[in-house]
Amino acid sequence: MGKPNVLSKRGIGRSLLLTVPMLLWCMLMFSRVLRQPGLAPKLAAVTTLSFTVGLFFLMMRTMETNRWRKWFFVTLGFLFPVGFIWDLVALRGSMSIPMERMISGDTPFCFLAIPMLILPAALTKTVIFPGSILPTASNPHAIAAMVGLWLAATLVLGKGWCSYGCFFGGIEEGFASVAKKPYLKKVDARWRWMPWAVLAFIVLMSAALVEPVYCTWLCPFKAVTEYPAVRSLETAAQAGIFIALFLGLVVVLPLLTKKRTQCSFLCPFGAFQSIFNKTSAIDVRLDTSKCVPCNLCEMSCPTFSIDSEAVKAGKPMMSCMKCGACVDVCPRNAAVWHVKGTEPGAAPERARLLQLYAAWAFTAMFGGSIIANTLSKLFGMVV
Q1: Minimal CB count within 10 Å: which of 122, 214, 249, 369?
Q2: 294 in the same domain as 186
């Protein structure tokens, strides 16, 4: 079967040179935190900048992507709820959101709601999410800003959003990384269709009921962010569903399978993002002439996006989130980064660099700010 692909390391000087643009970008991104009064924000900004740029340098030096991307992504996933809950408790005294605050539009906007907004907005000119369109003092995470950020990143990255932006996926990937090997190796491939069914269901039901159905009843991450205050049998049932889905799909199954099972088998937003893989310029290709049936790419893929049929077709399924795991692990360089419109295998490292500059710039801006703000709160407890 051979050893996993180990590319020749790039020289330190050239790696540093390639890292300089990202260093300058990150300095710009974290300058606001650096200018905040007190020692804690400055420590947080320097720590986050060093972490973000250091990982990018390692991507340049080792010519690997997924290992270093995962370090950042998992850190983001576990720090996000800390900072988010911290702010909620400071503002409201609790993770739960009272109905009166929902009615007043005081709910931070979540990008998972985006697919549910489209039909109601088109048919009734109504925004069904209980948040504010523009930022307010009590709700800076407004709908317009978040949708604009999502759209810009998605047109460039496609489903790469799920590898570089979705902090919820970072939680799941963290649990999937705990075990050295999967304890549950076989999962029925037909479950891959479930997110599409959930997507169709929540879009239609949200339009019919004029409410974000997935947020109300099915989102596992309500368990670690915010949820309606438990004041009735209905809200108690909602809380129970959120906790059960979180424990089952975000914690237990990733521990057993080493896969992102919530992303693969439930998340309607992930299915929605798959459509935008058509708009991004970079994808992954599988060279059948170089491939040997080692199945390393299939085993390494966190979202079940590669199987024998995908290998025969020469590319992962449209659910590929461009994490780079299959490229890094392939012993024969059969899995490669690819610029659409060029021959597969033509300048794959150049394609990887184009992908990484765009993806990491977004990661530093979006995820880096979350990490820096959370660290600032934590450092503030000890300095």
Answers
A1: 122
A2: no
Same domain, 58 and 116: no
Structural domain count of the chain: 3
What's the CATH number where 304 sits?
A: 3.30.70.20
Q: In a structure prediction context, what are the per-residue pLDDT tens digits for the chain, which is 383 residues long?
A: 334 444 568 999 999 999 999 999 999 999 989 999 999 999 999 999 999 999 999 999 999 999 999 999 999 999 999 999 998 888 777 777 765 665 556 777 889 999 999 999 998 888 888 777 877 766 767 888 889 999 999 999 999 999 999 999 999 999 999 999 999 988 887 899 999 999 999 999 999 999 999 999 999 999 999 887 888 999 999 999 999 999 999 999 999 999 999 999 999 999 999 999 999 999 999 998 999 889 999 999 999 999 999 999 999 999 999 999 999 999 999 999 999 999 988 899 999 999 999 999 999 999 999 999 999 999 999 98
Write out the chain in H/E/C secondary structure: CCCCCCCCCCCHHHHHHHHHHHHHHHHHHCHHHHCCCCHHHHHHHHHHHHHHHHHHHHHHHHCCCHHHHHHHHHHHHHHHHHHHHHHHHHHHCCCEECHHHHHCCCCCCCHHHHHHHHHHHHHHCCCCCCCCCCCCCCCCCCHHHHHHHHHHHHHHHHHHHHHHCCHHHHHHHHHHCCCCCCCCCCCCHHHHHHHHHHHHHHHHHHHHHCCCHHHHHHCHHHHHCCEECCCCHHHHHHHHHHHHHHHHHHHHHHHHHCCCHHHHHCCHHHHHHHHHHHCCCEEEEECCCCCCCCCHHHHHCCCCCCCHHHHHHCCCCCCCCCCCHHHHHCCCCCEEEEECCCCCCCCHHHHHHHHHHHHHHHHHHHHHHHHHHHHHHHHCCCC
